[in-house]
Amino acid sequence: MPADRFVAQLNVQVGNELASHNQYLACAAYYEALTLPQMAAFFYRQAAEERDHALMMVKYLLDTDAKVEIPAIEAVENDFADVVAPVALALAQEKKVTDQVHHLYRIAREETDFASEQFMTWFVREQVEEVSTMSDLLAVVTRNKNDLEQIEEYVAREGAPEDGDPTAPPIAGA
Description:
Largest sheet: none
CATH class: Mainly Alpha
CATH architecture: Up-down Bundle
Shape: elongated
Number of strands: 0
Number of domains: 1
CATH topology: Ferritin
Structural class: mainly alpha
Helix content: over 70%
Distance between the termini: 23 Å
Strand content: under 5%
Number of helices: 5
CATH superfamily: Ferritin, core subunit, four-helix bundle
């Protein structure tokens, strides 16, 4: 069984991932309302990915006989000043999640909880990709904020979904 301290923080992180899911849904809806289907689809995919991250954590807790406690989730930002704002928010959110993931990894290491440390390794790698993707998207959206078609073309070209990661932890309910 994982360390109690790790379990408590992983349950908190489940809520953080679900909050990210909801925030990305709000971003997707914003872009869909602007008739930017590529940006909307990108954020719908991001939302699904965050939900999957939460369910990976739930599955780990279940598989290790730890208690699952789904926390309350705060309201998300629904109003944005322009097409750049949701991406800037998403990048800030990914950086925050990276800090949260590193904190969980640190707890596992401090508790000599080897299985939990190994579990968190995938998330550490994943966050490098997430921050990089959002950083690139923010640069493109900022540069092309007055040319929405350029943004859509970039996302269509670069934002295509990848095949599943065979090294990813299992997802609860999948």
